[in-house]
Write a structure and sequence with these properties.
The chain contains 9 helices and no strands. By secondary structure, the protein is mainly α. It starts with a helix and ends with a helix.
Amino acid sequence: FTKAVRLDPGNAEYHDSRGVTLHYMGRHEEALAEDDEAVRLEPGSARYHHSRGVTLNYMGRHEEALAEYDEAVRLEPGSAEYHRSRGVSLRELGRLEEALSEIDLAIQIDPELAISHSSRALTLRAMGREEEAQVEEALEASLSRNDTNA
């Protein structure tokens, strides 16, 4: 994506794709610079705010990540993934009841999104609700198996 960005530096999608690649390579500072550019070029894109939030979350900058997820949810309120990510940041900030509510909303939007059940299990476990967490893990495993068998 470096060459694509060089050829068309005004293309937000190229910056976002390069940022995602750098993120997966563990090069978070560089990824954040690409995320920043994508958001600067297209501030109305929920996807780019979400990508920036993911990078910030991995950097341990959970308050900033939450602000990006807030914007992504504002722009695209029907996205289960954006609500789930918002819930993860809330959990990282110790706001467990809010986190659970946000993750429950993600599951309400898309009950088949397996990762939401995993996030719910982690949140329940952080709340000391082990039995409920185990039920969510079983559900997540079942949904994941169904995804691979589809």
